[in-house]
Amino acid sequence: MPPPPPPPPLSRRGMLRTAVLAAAASGFSGATAGSSSASSSAPVGPSAATLPAPPTWALHPFALGDVTLGRGVFATKRQFMLDHGRGYDADRLLQVFRANAGLSTRGAVAPGGWEGLDGEANGNLRGHYTGHFLTMLAQSYAGTGDQVYADRISYLTGALTEVRAALRVAPAVLGVAGRFGTAAEHVRGSYRYVDLPAGVLGGAPAITLSAWVKPTHHAAWARVFDFGDDTTRYLYLAARNANGVPRFAVTTGGPAGEQGIDGTGELPLDRWSHLAVTIGGGTGVLYVNGTAVGRRTGMTLDPAVLGPLRNNWLGRSNFPGDPVFAGAFDEFNAWARALTAREIAELQDRRAADASPGRGDLVSYAFDETSGSTVADGSARGLDATVRRTWGGPSHPGFLAAYPETQFITLESMTGSDYTVVWAPYYTAHKILRGLLDAHLHTGDARALDLASGLCDWMYSRLSRLPAATLQRMWGLFSSGEFGGLVEAVCDLHALTGGPEHLALARLFDLDSLIDACAANRDILDGLHANQHIPVLTGLLRLHDATGEARYLAAAKNFWDMVVPTRMYAIGGTSTGEFWRARGSVAGTISATTAESCCAYNMLKLSRLLFFHEPDPKYMEYYERALYNQVLGSKQDTADGEKPLVTYFIGLTPGHVRDYTPKAGTTCCEGTGMESATKYQDSVYFRTADNSALYVNLYSPSTLTWAERGVTVTQTTDYPREQGSTLTIGGAGAFELRLRVPSWAGPDFRVTVNGAPVAGQPRPGAYFTVSRTWRAGDTVRITVPFRLRTEATPDDPTLQALFHGPVNLVARDPATACRRLGFYRNAALSGDLLPTLTPVPGKPLHHTLDGTEFAPFFEGTEDPAHVYFRRDEPRVVFGNTDSGVANPARLDGTTLLDEIWAGAPFRDKDALVARVRSTVDAWRSAGLLGRTDGDTVVRTARNAAYVN
Questions:
Q1: Which residues, in sequence order, are bridge partners of residue 754?
Q2: What is the mean pLDDT of residues 206-214?
């Protein structure tokens, strides 16, 4: 679809600035924490609250809406995701929430994958994806001003408000069209059943049980009815047994003692079927749609033998592991006699009341109700039934989830991890909370803040009563105890509400074993799940902001250094098979499941937040690497209405092809991928706390509105396809412009203002300051020359990756063996290896070498790629002149050419030849190179021609 029209550039920013000023005056506004007054039709307006920057921050970010992306690689990638956010059916995202609350799902189909009951681990993570989607929509609205995203947020927030309201009260009958009139639907995932009064079977020695059902799922052992005490004494009818056919059974001795009758064919899904069972005179008959499909003689068990039973249920089994019936019930009748085959046949086309058997004399439910929890009994006995949930209901009115509270309850007693039982419920709660907070912050929806506050109030009510030892055990569990970035989100909520219970909640997630080790700079990461722990440290930084506790900050800073660069791949990613290995182990961990995309997302968040506290350029160095490579490259360059097309793992094995539709879909990485693709501009610019300086961290086409200074900064560039950028100042005033000088930048990094060179020497890996009183129209030109260079892995110097400036270049080659490549053959005097490659006309950043094309990693294609290669420089070659001398190596793998070119850049050819001579002399003295070969090497260097 065509891109949305651009927003008016000033009106919306002015609106946001007004909201920010109002928030600064009032502290915060919006719904009171925990209140329930927000209407499901509350209007959406400009943000009435903003997250205040803590006094611990040296630098402050700009709001997403203050930075507008210009044309370039980021805007192109973002547009794919914007289109996805516009078109995806919101009712599908709400399906699992509405089902859990027993509301109509409006015919929507759950997204599937991790967001469906048939997904991995029984869908135990469902609900997380909707939170990610809310954040993506909020960021899309903030970045574009397009009302369609705010409207979608409003719809989702209103629906979630209705879900929470439904969870707060007893479940109500969900009336739908039935076989004859109205039926009661039990949506799959609602965990609903009908609870019948005691004595419903009346102790009858003969009986007929009849029901109209429309099953919507093929799960085995879901009960149409089950009357029993436990798993020993019961009488049941299952819609499907293990063989997929209906089964009736009665027993006083458990499964081994069952007297059963099986059907002969499967019940169709989404169609009405009539089931009936008769017992009389020692004979039992099972009917399906009026036809006897099974008969058992010599039966000795009947309701009279069973006696009074405690549990009398429609749709629920006495076996707790069996599924709840999913589908609809129309009539259910029970007679204290065995109906004849003719009487059963009469029930096929009319209500029982209109047929000769009449209503059941034991009980008769027509399911004509459309509201309330009571199902009326039409028999003379008045045994009205009640719709219930298997799990009861929430322990607190703030509870909001797409599944019952049972996962949270079970986690409290778990001693080992099993994600098929409990899969990171507090992780899912974090995603929902974060999405609601972002919805509130970017659109001002008070309902979203109310839902977020209530959710945290519920968590506090659960966790604050648990012993500290229980909490430590829970958070230490792999996967089951994972809680993602929950602490960061709760701290953000606390900054909005000021509620002391919210700060207290954030501290309940302290994982002391991790915090204490990292604060003491003791590396314990080997064997830990990477993405479970990275966002924990981001939360600790926010706790430091709120409490001033020094160990939180120390832990986060030390942790970052344990990952970067010692466990970092060239593209900026980390983890192999989702876990970390030993410090410094990179080459030894390369596999098809390296670099989980969520890890890069969370490392960027951590790096950004650390930079706010301490503006060390290393954090933005990493940010550039991961953003321009893994994060950009994880998004396929294709639009899709159904999937976000984002990677889970990025395999770094030779010839790996990226998978943009990972696993069964709706994974964590697809969620964070949606977020990443709609906030590319969030770290281009920062400002000092006193607004005296502007940091330009990334070279990216964009326009900044700096409301506090009354200026705009427009950055014009095609970086990284262009080796530089131009900044144009709008407005006037005195402030410092601090420009990041990448660590890989050479001595030719230059800055001019209005065409005149700026005094001073930019230093790679630092920021270069331009201080002046700016006038409207001032132009700053930054020249950032790229060099082609290689980076070796720490544990194998011969395994290397190729970079041109910030961009990782990959060899597009289907071979699954590691490529052996050499680059010194035509290296320039500057040390730039680019002259060895041949540029591809019309394809920026594309080159060839020996017939193989090299392309930017950030291009989201499905081409087989080699990120790493084996460095192979078999002979000494200068300026494409082969000396014929083998390139010797030291025991550590360093070659003669490595040592020569380590002295680059060279001011001229003579300087290079001098370096060659001194290096040859040293190697000859060490017995690593013969005199004749050494002389040949020097002579070749002297005679060769070089690119200057």
A1: none
A2: 98
